[in-house]
């Protein structure tokens, strides 16, 4: 008897355990294999997730929009929605969920039927959440691809429960794949020339549109660079993703959705005055109270707010 390849055998097991009958799973298997992410990227769907940096042209099937919460109004997935809700301390309102099989359409979250935990590919989480506008469609999809039909509140709650563990896994994978580059011992800060690797809670980096990584020893140097690139490099770059280190956990987090404590005269970083980054607003507020600072969002941070009477050096 001819042996079955391991991957094929695992697929067989997956289909057989999530369907009442194996035969319908084989007949309708294509329903579980919708192209996700979309390749090549479909530029009809503009946008970038500020929480994780992923782009809508690829991840449009699971895109979510909502009324702005501290400058954020769109994310790529339930994972990032839950992440931002926990970080900001606010559940988003007027949430619109994209219909998985029709990425050009979205519906109010309260009207959605969500198949959670099917064999279809999800985004940022091993537990996929596939959105449908009709319960009959969700039930039919579940019969073939497995999972459970739930409403929006339950899907969001499930995402919140798993987001911390998923973030640890995602962070490790980003470093392994080079999406975040740990500074080497010999890497220099673009602004001051110091060695970012020596400052585990100060280090930060910019990944540019043309694929470069710029290392910084501190947020002071990061925001000095962002304020006037031509003071430090000859050819300006387009920042694609900004990574900073959460002061509470030591994990890399998106600089654009971090909360910063500025104005402290009690705590200092590698270059003195800093904008201390935090993943959670509550952590930032607590640190600010304890150290006579102010908690702000990324868009409110400038170098002159970090360093009193800041001046760029001129030749």
TrEMBL record:
Sorted UniProt keywords: Iron, Iron-sulfur, Metal-binding, Signal
Signal sequence, start to end: 1-24
InterPro entries: N2O_reductase_NosL (IPR008719), TAT_signal (IPR006311)
Coiled-coil region: none
Gene Ontology molecular functions: iron-sulfur cluster binding
Pfam families registered for this protein in UniProt: NosL (PF05573)
Gene3D superfamilies, sorted: 3.30.70.2050
Keyword Signal in record: yes
Tagged with keyword Thylakoid: no
PANTHER family: HTH-TYPE TRANSCRIPTIONAL REPRESSOR YCNK
Name of the molecule in the record: NosL family protein
Native organism: Desulfosarcina widdelii
């Amino acid at each position: 008897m001819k042996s079955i390849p391991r991957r094929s055998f695992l697929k067989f097991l997956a289909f057989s355990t999530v369907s009442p009958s194996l035969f319908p799973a084989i007949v309708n298997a294509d329903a579980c294999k919708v192209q996700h992410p979309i390749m090549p990227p479909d530029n009809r769907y503009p946008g970038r997730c500020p929480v994780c940096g992923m782009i809508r042209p690829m991840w449009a099937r699971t895109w979510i929009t909502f009324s702005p919460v501290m400058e954020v109004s769109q994310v790529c997935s339930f994972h990032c929605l839950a992440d931002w809700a926990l970080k900001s301390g606010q559940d988003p309102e007027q949430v619109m969920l994209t219909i998985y099989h029709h990425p050009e359409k979205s519906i109010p979250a309260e009207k959605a039927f969500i198949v959670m935990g099917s064999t279809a590919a999800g985004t940022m989480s091993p537990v996929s959440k596939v959105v449908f506008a009709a319960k009959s469609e969700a039930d039919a999809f579940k019969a073939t691809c497995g999972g459970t039909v739930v409403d929006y509140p339950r899907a969001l709650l499930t995402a919140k429960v798993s987001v911390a563990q998923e973030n640890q896994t995602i962070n490790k994978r980003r470093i392994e794949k080079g999406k975040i580059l740990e500074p080497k011992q010999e890497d220099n800060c673009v602004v001051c020339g110091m060695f970012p690797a020596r400052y585990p809670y100060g280090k930060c980096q910019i990944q540019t549109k043309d694929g470069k990584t710029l290392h910084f020893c501190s947020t002071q140097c990061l925001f000095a660079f962002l304020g006037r690139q031509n003071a430090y490099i000859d050819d300006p770059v387009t920042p694609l993703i900004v990574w900073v280190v959460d002061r509470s956990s030591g994990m890399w987090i998106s600089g654009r959705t971090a909360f910063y404590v500025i104005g402290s005269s009690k705590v200092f970083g590698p270059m003195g005055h800093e904008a201390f980054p935090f993943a959670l607003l509550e952590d930032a507020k607590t640190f600010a109270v304890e150290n006579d600072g102010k908690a702000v969002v990324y868009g409110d941070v400038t170098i002159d707010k970090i360093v009193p009477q800041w001046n760029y050096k001129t030749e």
